[in-house]
Specification:
Layout: H1 12-27, H2 37-50, H3 55-67, H4 74-85, H5 92-98, H6 108-121, H7 125-134, H8 145-160, E1 163-165, H9 166-173, H10 180-187, E2 190-192, E3 196-198, H11 202-205, H12 217-226
Antiparallel strand pairs: 1-3, 2-3
Helix pairs in contact: 1-2, 2-3, 2-4, 4-5, 4-6, 6-7
């Protein structure tokens, strides 16, 4: 079953209708009925084309693949992993990876996506963009994918830097100088001089925390007795 003509962008009404149908399906006792699989696979494709995300539905697809190994479609698995990457720094990718049979890890696309996840987790940011441009063309079919990755990188930059060279930041985000302002506005970064970007003063964001514990005589009575 397909939700829409593959030659046309899905409408808002089609997306909302699909969400309602899938939510109802996942609440039923037979959520792992293999007859649901074609519907859910189309729903994964819909997420990629309409730029929304449903982790619970995607985990249900991977679970159905576990129960029915001959039904596995690696293209759908790849789409699920790519969508999970768009929700970094949350642990969705790890949850999905744990449901994928290890025999599929050697598939070229699956292996490339897993390496991409590793590069993102270890902040090999320039290698991320090289992989996307040369080894992982499938990501281009996921609407909003690159901007979701840029958003994650922005979070990493926020936690790591106080100031950063503008050219380096452009390389991290894989954007041209003229497009950088959009991301600066989103994260509240400020230009300092010609070449520097002020991220944030981490010392000012550190908050002291006072812990007040109420200790009664009864609390320490046994200790005092044992110390006699």
């Amino acid at each position: 079953m397909s939700f829409f003509d593959n030659q046309q962008a899905p409408s808002k009404e089609q997306v909302e209708s699909a969400k309602v149908q899938v939510a109802r399906m996942l609440q039923e006792l037979d959520r792992y009925n293999p007859d649901n699989l074609p519907f859910l696979e189309n729903y994964v494709d819909l997420q990629c084309r309409a730029n929304f995300y449903d982790l619970e539905a995607n985990l249900a697809v991977l679970k159905l693949y576990q129960f029915n190994p001959p039904a596995v479609k690696l293209q759908i698995v790849a789409q699920i992993l790519l969508k999970a990457l768009t929700n970094l720094p949350h642990s969705d990718f790890v949850l999905c990876k744990c449901l994928i049979d290890i025999s599929h890890h050697t598939d070229r696309t699956i292996d490339t996506i897993m390496k991409l996840h590793s590069d993102l987790e270890t902040c090999e940011l320039q290698r991320v963009w090289f992989s996307l441009s040369s080894d992982l063309r499938e990501a281009a079919a996921v609407v909003g994918f690159e901007d979701a990755i840029r958003n994650y990188i922005g979070i990493v930059v926020n936690m790591t830097y106080q100031r950063i060279d503008k050219r380096m930041l452009c390389e991290f985000l894989n954007v041209k100088d003229k497009d950088l302002k959009t991301w600066m506005d989103r994260f509240g970064w400020k230009a300092q001089g010609v070449n520097d970007i002020f991220i944030q003063n981490h010392e000012e964001s550190i908050k002291t925390k006072s812990i007040l514990e109420h200790i009664t005589f009864e609390t320490v009575e046994d200790i005092m007795i044992n110390c006699r």
